[in-house]
Amino acid sequence: MKNKEIVTNAFSLKSMMLMALPSYFFPGVTAWLSGWFLQKVDLMNASFVSIAIPSLIATIITYSFFWGTKNRFKLENKLIRILLMLFLNLFLAYFLIVFLKLNKYQFDIMLSTVIGTVITAWKVPTQKSNNEIR
To answer: Could you give the CA distance from residue 134 to residue 124 in angstroms, rounded to a whole number?
Structure first.
């Protein structure tokens, strides 16, 4: 009889929140602190909306993508994984910028999207061929 490998599902709300909350709070807090030190009220006001939310959305999309495709194809190379998700998330961010007419915040949204995507794509574990998580 063949020995079938059982792949456990590592997705849970707790694991997604452990990825998502830091990707929202850290860009928001750092942008707010920068605005406070530079005395830029507009940066402080935009920190938790136009800067932190795109990072959060990119994190959720990236995490969901890797959870959903874990068994379809393997993305063991972190560089390929990061570049693939950067392309996808930057395309979605640009589409939303154009669709919602947020050109004023284009740089903030794109930068936050890159930060959230890279951090999440780097941290999500991949499966080796012998089911060891790395």
So the answer is: 9
